[in-house]
Every structure is written in C-alpha cells, then in structure tokens.
Amino acid sequence: MAKQTLTVKNFSIVPFQDAVRARIEKAFEPLVASGHLAINFAGTAKDAKYWLSFDEKYSWTTRERPGCGRQPLWFGMTGSVYVDAIRSYQLCTDVTNCRTCERVFRHSPDELGKAIAHVAVHEAGHVLGLMDGGADGAAHTADSHNAMFDIPQHKDYVRLAVDAKRTMKYTIVKGDTLSKIARRIGFWPPRHGWQTLHKLAGKDGKVNKNLLRSGDPNLIFPDEQIWIPDIVERTMWVRTVELADKTFTKAQFDTMRGWIDVGRTMFD
Fold it and tell me: What's the burial of 226, exposed, middle or buried (CB within 10 Å: 0-12/13-18/19+)?
C-alpha cells in the first residue's frame, strides 16, 4: 500500500483525459513504483493531504484579454490547473479581427492535452514538496525539459513589450497612428501604453522613434516602416518550449520522497 495518495479533483472537465492521465502517471511513475505514492483520479477522498484540482473557469482581466487575444498570466497555481487559461491562450496579429488569432496550444492530445498535463505535473510537484531553490527560489528552472520549467526563467524569454528578437517590419498606411497600430496589435502595456511601441527596438537594434523622420510620435507618414512584434514567431517559440518533453531529476524525486515519508505538506 502506498504511503500517500495524490487526489485529483474535477478531472472530468479535462479534454483528452486519456492522454493527460497517461502523462501524469508517467511523470510520477518512480514514486508509484517505490511505493511512496498512489494517484486517485476519482477525486473522492475526503480531507486529502495531497491534492490537485482542475479548474475550468479562469478570471480574465482586461490586461489578459486585449480584444480577441488571450494572454493568461497564470496556467496554474500550487495545487490548481487553470484549464480555460491553457485552452484559450491565443495570440493575434490583429486583436480586432479574431480570424487573425491562433491558439498557442492547438486542440489535440499532443498539444492542448500535453500542455495541460505539463501544468498538472508542475503544480503537483509543488504540492509534493518542490517549493524552494531553483532559478527563482521557488523551485522553478530555466530548463524547458524539466517538469518545474517556468518560461520567464528561460534565457531567451523577454516580455512582449521589449522582445526585439521576435519582431517584424510594418509599413505605415494612410490613416495610421502609433496609437491605432498599438491597439490593433494588442500592444498596450499598462505603464506606457502605445508609447511602448514608439520605444520598441527591432532585430537590427534600431528603435522605432529613430526610424520616424518627423521625430514626433504623433506625426507619422505612409510608407514609413517600424518594428512590431512578430506574433507568429513568438507563438511558435512559446509552443516549442512549453511542449518540450519534461521530467523530474533524481534530486527532485528525492525531495518529494522526503516529504511523503514524513507526511509533510505545504501548510506545515
């Protein structure tokens, strides 16, 4: 009999359940094989010491929903997986036109199912004791092949507002303003709004404000070119690192075994 049980709640709401379950079971198979852990996907245990909950509803903020775009701040928190955030995450080349949007994780077992499973394994890792150390002091790692991967820790990650590497040229047309362009592409960071686009650098290191001949951000001309985020390239990059196969290290398994052996929880 296993020393402890990881109780999974609300698993019925999860798409591609067979694929998600298989990935969760594979991730924790060493703990199950050593007799430390059992996983109960029925979610029926009362007063569960170790639990993982799948939550369907995500509380979107206006910052996370620019027009048709969906850019969740969180895929989950310790013990919880936000299914709607993962499923709805999409980037658009024009947030006013939903036909230009693409889901970061496409609706298939190998993409959406895999993304949900990765978040589930990650959050269960926290529940089972992976709370300290790592790249940020919270057990996260920059290694996209590790189950505790956190994309902001990745060496190639930068916020969309300052992502010079993944940019493309845009040719200004009649009727454009920097404000209109920024709103159309959903590039409206809370602190500086459309002025952030004016200060954006491109792949060549040149800043938009230096590419506009008037020197006035409120005065632009047709056929001038500026840098804007390359949403297609960013979507592909995020998809690649988030969907890379992920496992725990021996040290991480040892930490989880240590917690289970003494019945320690994150609330102790």
Answer: buried
DSSP 8-state class, residue 50:
E
Burial of 209 per CB tally in 10 Å (0-12, 13-18, 19+): middle
Q: Are residues 132 and 251 in the same domain?
A: yes
Tell me, yes or no, whether 176 and 96 share the same domain. Answer: no
Residue span of the structural domain in which 69 resides? 4-157+235-262
pLDDT 10s digits, 29-86: 999 999 999 999 998 766 788 999 999 999 999 889 989 999 999 999 999 999 999 9
Residue linked to tokens 């320690």: 264
Check whether residue 223 and residue 239 sit in a common domain.
no
* pTM, entire model: 0.93
Residues 152 and 224 in one domain: no
Given a contact cutoff of 8 angstroms between Cβ atoms, the answer to whether 264 and 129 are in contact is yes
Tell me phi and psi for residue 123, to 5 degrees. -70, -35
Terminal Cα-to-Cα distance of the chain (whole angstroms): 24
Tens of pLDDT, residues 166-200 = 999 999 999 999 999 988 888 776 667 788 899 89
Identify the helix (H) or strand (E) that includes residue 253: helix 250-262
Residue 135 located in a structural domain: yes
